[in-house]
Amino acid sequence: MPELDRFDVVVVGAGPAGLAAANAAAGFGARVALIDENELPGGQIYRASRGSISASVREVIEDLSKKSVVRFDGSTVFEAPSDGVLRLWGPRGTQDIGYRSLVLAVGGRELFLPFPGWTLPNAMGIGGLQALVKAGLDVREKRVVVAGTGPLLLAVGAYLLEHGARVPIILEQAPLKDLALFGAGLVRYPAKIGQGISLGRHIATRLRAGAWVERAEGSRAVESVTWRKGGKSFQTECDFLACAYGFVPNVELPQLLGCEIQDGFVKVDDQQLTSVKGVFCAGEPTGIGGVDLSQVEGRIAGLVAIGQDDQAEALFGKRESWKRFARSMDRAFALRHELMELSTPDTIVCRCEDVRAGDLVAWESSRTAKLQTRCGMGPCQGRICGPATQKLFGWTQGSVRPPLSPVPLSALGRPLDEIEN
Amino acid sequence: MTEVFDGIVVGGGIVGCACAYYLSERFPKVLLIEKGPVGGGSTAAGMGHVVVMDDSRAQFALTQYSQQLWNELFPQLEPSCEPRSTGTLWVAADEEEFSHVDGKRKLYESNGLRAEVLDTKAIREAEPHLREGLPGGLLIPGDSVIYPMTAAAWLLDQARLRGAKLLQGRAVVKMGQGKTTLDDGTTLDAHFVVNATGDRAQTLTPGLPITPRKGHLIITDRYPGYVRHQLVELGYLKSAHEMSNESVAFNAQPRATGQILLGSSRQFVGWDPGIDRNLIAKMVARATEYLPGIGSLSVIRTWVGFRATTPNSLPLIGSLQHDPATLVAAGHEGLGITTSLATGKLIADIASGVESKIDRNPFAVSVEVKS
Ligand SMILES: Cc1cc2nc3c(=O)[nH]c(=O)nc-3n(C[C@H](O)[C@H](O)[C@H](O)COP(=O)(O)OP(=O)(O)OC[C@H]3O[C@@H](n4cnc5c(N)ncnc54)[C@H](O)[C@@H]3O)c2cc1C
Ligand SMILES: Cc1cc2nc3c(=O)[nH]c(=O)nc-3n(C[C@H](O)[C@H](O)[C@H](O)COP(=O)(O)OP(=O)(O)OC[C@H]3O[C@@H](n4cnc5c(N)ncnc54)[C@H](O)[C@@H]3O)c2cc1C
Hints:
Largest sheet of chain A: 7 strands, mixed
CATH topology of the largest domain in chain A: FAD/NAD(P)-binding domain
CATH topology of the largest domain in chain B: FAD/NAD(P)-binding domain
Oligomer: heterodimer
CATH class of the largest domain in chain B: Alpha Beta
Shape of chain B: globular
Number of helices of chain B: 11
Strand content of chain A: 15-25%
Structural class of chain B: alpha/beta
Structural class of chain A: alpha/beta
Helix content of chain B: 25-40%
Bound molecules: flavin-adenine dinucleotide
């Protein structure tokens, strides 16, 4: 049996939080591993396919390679088989990796709320559509309705326009007065990714605040959406619908490791330490707050992980100001209750197992619903329907079982590495 | 509360639900008490293979009787119970195992069950993904597969339609002499009380010889038709009987969804809920010996469950000698989905004082009473 390869610090997730953590830890000579299931580092925002990495990320990555950071690209952490050990599935098959300290920077995913037609082809998430365009999907002259909530709507709306799409409307569920309150922050947010988006007239004229998609129609793919604003319904024809209601944290790996979850997020202390010894968490799993908050949290975690507590403490003030910004976003984009009432009995809630809203009303918890209807039992293991049923029915999500994401059976066929103490 | 129930069933696994099902045919006032979700115990963890087993005569009788009862219910079951007549294909790994196949066939046939010996060519035709060159196997076409959780819920629903009641979310802390005490202090009265708490039955009826035996399962994504029958290695009985601490046998079940459920392991490690990766690795290796291409199929989940094991591998079905108002229906090991219905019948027979279709003696309960 091979001997376990052990690092001082292992960072899972190479988004803004993970990159910052790895850099901070490696800056002091620690042996650091950085794991991400994507082929390239960068996380959801810089998810740059085909080598077109933005300059700022390229810098960070070059920095990493100068330091002693070992990258495991295209590798998914799918299990935490024992104390201090993670299992990955990647280009070299199944690998076990040991750590003294662990930084979980696994990010978040988009929140989908079911409405009739949301599972039609060409209806997808907002980040999801943007990623497809980045990967080469041609949207020139295509009519794309962008809907949901949060600053992402405008950022992606602008991005689509730049790529030649026609964006007839952008539907923001939050009412106008809250958006106005949000004010400066909104302008500040998209500026962060340096895409040079300004809230120009071309966006403003398309934006409908206090408006949301009631249903999507179409026979083989989306052909139109019916949306609601001010007590009236409207219909708009389209080729694509990009709709999501903000982000939810990826808490599955932290849960598998036994980290305490509080109100849906990983509970951490001032030093980004979770309830489990030696395990830190940074970025979206601890709260949704954008790139800057993720970065500063990652840095703090990376520093504390190698004992640089003082350096970390110097960043607490900065973190607090980004948290304030995050809280104001949360307030401005709070989800309206009408969104929870859009599904009809035959609206699909769990896509993997084809479970419909009408099948779910009889059950009192996610566990009973899962046992009786298979809701959340499919390949995505409730990643999509779980957050939806939590919003819709108030169900808390059940336990997490390995593998965290589907892997070939042979990935489970390898005995654990020998642990040398 | 002065209400006196005819019968109280403690535990809403498939066994308790089957007891409620048959008791409610004969008694108007039946109550089932379940502390958690219905079917959320071992019933949620198991495989749902309804199989006639030739392990011992008593087991053959019980499983065969139970299978007949399942067959009677199949036309009525909700589609969500996923009843499927997959048959069981017992796979011989070598000539030695194959040499026992004909004896097994005779045994099934002499009991009125169909059985068919498959040679090396026929077995590959029946299951194209099996390894080439296997000597053959035995097909028992009458066996089937169900989805245990929904089947348990369905049985209970039927009982409730006949007037049985469900008390959910309360644990029983004490039972005996027709009295049942709940965790909120309430005491309920009944003419008889059935302990159907599975692998926990010995906590309510001290002295029951039940030990948990842990099993691991693996489920794949959907690959309809990859496996067509419930496949079990003929060496299975060897490993099921080994009282050694750990054993692994090949077992692959085609689910109605097209998923493949892979077993099986047996371990005596108490109620440790952790997943043993090295054991999983052995299961994968074992499955790959029989289905060489299976390693590339996508796995979506692994989990563990506990079988309630008894010293003679037979369930405990009967009343206590010193307390005839207490009935036990527990200790169903790896066959409780199959034997739930026969158990329910036997319990209803005992409660109403009638003879049963099969000999009840092998399942009689004897406990050492500590006074
Ligand atoms: C299109 C788009 C535009 C945005 N624009 C802005 C903006 O202008 N300003 C702003 O502040 N924010 C913006 N955001 C939000 C921003 O992207 C996030 O806040 C930020 O990326 C969060 O960083 P993170 O490191 O916490 O997580 P992520 O960026 O999500 O990174 C997590 C990483 O972990 C990896 N991972 C997860 N689980 C595993 C596992 N088990 N094994 C291996 N790897 C794993 C993932 O692959 C991912 O790469 C935008 C988001 C999107 C989608
Ligand atoms: C890995 C594995 C594979 C299996 N495969 C098969 C198979 O293919 N075919 C087959 O026939 N069998 C199979 N089995 C066996 C089968 O699953 C069990 O025998 C069967 O589920 C037992 O049912 P039960 O009702 O006795 O127990 P359970 O389902 O455990 O039900 C007991 C119930 O009692 C409740 N309870 C416990 N204590 C209390 C209390 N104090 N108060 C109130 N309620 C209480 C529990 O919450 C639970 O719901 C398998 C088992 C395992 C573990």
